[in-house]
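User: I'm new to structure prediction. If I give you an amino acid sequence, what do you actually give back? Let's try with this one:
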Amino acid sequence: MSEMRIDRRGALGLAAMGAAGLALPGAGRAQAATSRFDPAYVDGVVATFMRRFEIPGVGIAVIRPGAEPWLKGYGVRTVGQPGAIDAHTRFAIASNSKSFTAAALALLVEEKKLGWDDPVRKHIPEFRMKDPLATENLTVRELLVHNSGLALGAGDLMQFPASDRPASDILKGLPYFPFARGFRTGYAYDNALYVVAGLLIERVSGQSWDRFVEARLLKPLGMADAVPALRFLKDANVAGRHARLGPPVRGQGKLARVAPDEGPMTDAAGGINASVTDIAKWLRVQLAKGALPGGGRLWSEASAAEMWKPVTIVGSSDGPSADWPSRGVTSTYALGWFVQDYRGERLVHHSGGLSGQITQTAMLPRLGYAVAVFTNTEDGPSAALRNAILDHLMGVGPFDWAGAFEKRRDAMDKEAFAAVAAAGGIDKAPAGAPSLPLSAYAGRYRDPWYGDVAVAERGKGLHIDFVPTPVFTSALEPWGTDAFRTRFKPGAGEDAVVTFTVEGGRATGAKMKALSPLADFSYDFHDLDFTKVG
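Assistant: Good question. You get back a string of structure tokens that encode the predicted 3D arrangement of the chain. For your 534 residues, that looks like this:
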């Protein structure tokens, strides 16, 4: 997925390689860079994006060498309610939390409590994956770099929408998560192994991930607005969440308020809530390679280099083009960061997305610049807005990033809906009907990693309950041969098509897929394989 189509989990920005260990700019260059910055330009470009893409609220942080961070909020926290976005409004930074998990592990490596190249099983003996080679050889480092062989977003339905599953349940599901390729043979983004990384931090340190991150990272940096997870928020200065819920599908239609949908299992993969004031402190210590503003260090320069060192190749391209000048020649993933080339500079960045919000963090280390863009909608223009601000800092001539994003988004939407139309559409049931009496489909079905769904007759139809995910409850509407679709409550998540396996006149199992062609990859219904157990 490219940087213009940011999924709700915020995972897959276009990333690429950069060399490690480049020096920060000298004083002369820093002074020139500082004088180039024009707050009025940022005000104007933010206003353009907010108007053009109906973004209710935005938080911006700009870090430059030799200057205090420039911090500003725009718009409202929640549509239809009082309360403005300011520099202390908390957003769910989602997968931007991954760099905190990487840094937490770096602290433990420096304390010699573990090593980057230790097998995970050395510290978590019950760790298992479907591939025996990965089980025995996956290292601490490889928990963070998306090269395990797991399928894209494998196991995310254990995390989204919210449930009361503890993080430790990931170890029960992991042996059954599907592999899309061989161990260490390619890139596919996952959240599950970051959950394991959080458990590893607890095993080695004796503190839960949230307590360790708060004590060792948030507090030393003075990130006073930040909390390790949504459940720790205590006041009202929190950005609301907004999404387009259709018709015809999520990602289309009018903007509406939605509720958070992450639970405690998500913490180490994407739990932190923070303001742009907070994230500026995080980006400054990153640019300083672990050095604190008042002296002392959070981590060593060696650890800083380790965290920014590319490990996994994400992809490659011919480089910048006229309609997308930020495209990297090579995209890579390091430890909690994407690393790519950007207009001749190394760009270290990440995105984060949960229901109703998308956030961006980005650094140009050689120049000493960093930018954060936080938005309270799950539409994807935040990466293009980030690029517009980076270009301004670099003194690059104006480029219509809003127009470029809109053009690419529309092209991708058109392609997706053309594919759906070719398959018969999503507004009209496909040909076919149940081959059995409805009572024959009723029962309990079990997937080895997700758990159970319960199908029951209610009135004249069927109803399904996803037992571990309370919000997933719906009538089942006939949708082809031995298939039915859900209609979950608006905002609850993506709908699914449930196709029953019929053998010898009996329903023996079920498979699923997301109804929408635009569904976020974390709705990995397609990885479920249910067997009827009762």
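You can read the tokens as a compact description of the fold. Here is one thing that stands out. DSSP finds 13 helices and 20 strands in the chain.
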